[in-house]
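Form P-L/3: holo structure prediction, ligand inosinic acid.
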Amino acid sequence: MIVEDLWKADKNNVLMDEIQSVYVSAENIQQRVIELGQAISRDYVGKNPVLVGALKGVLCFMADLIRAITIPIEVDLIAISSYSQEARQKGLVRMVKDLDLPITGRHVLFVEDVIDTGLTLNYLINSLRARQPASIEVCVLFDKNQHRLIDLPIRYKGFELPDYFVVGYGLDYHERFRNLPFVGILKPEVLFNRRQSG
Ligand code: IMP
Ligand code: MG
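OUTPUT (holo model):
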């Protein structure tokens, strides 16, 4: 039985009551993550890259991506505070947990779950760039480019998403739904005008 059917069949699963539809199945995510891992493994041979993720949304993607990479890598995580959409539009992003590893002279691959306006990513890339890595590239699972305010080159991209608010596979709505193994669209009545980051 595929995982989506298991979730739908569980009548006690209150999370499913708020999901309108499955947008990207667990199987399709896994397939794409393997392709991304293969591309990264090819491109970074001999470079020992540092993969950097921003908690918490990147949790599932990072866990699967690193296991699809077949060359030596190092992994680090940062955490940023979840400001409102308004605050982020002013470029306000606060790092609440910094990197453990020094990245000066290293090849850095920044891993993100979703890029919407690009403001969060822009802030983070700039602050990592100040540490003078040998290179810095971006790998994103979901690209929502309808609201892009800052255009950033994305080296590895999983899927393009339309302008829906999606949850699951690490992505949350007010901290819920991160544990869905697939990516789903919330029912409109569940959504309020507020956006959640993190
Ligand atoms: P940006 O600064 O507008 O690019 O915001 C990106 C951040 O917003 C992501 O790291 C997510 O935390 C959050 N985000 C954007 N779109 C979604 C979505 O559809 N579902 C869940 N989180 C989202
Ligand atoms: Mg995020």
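COMMENT: Residues 193-198 have pLDDT under 50 and may be disordered.
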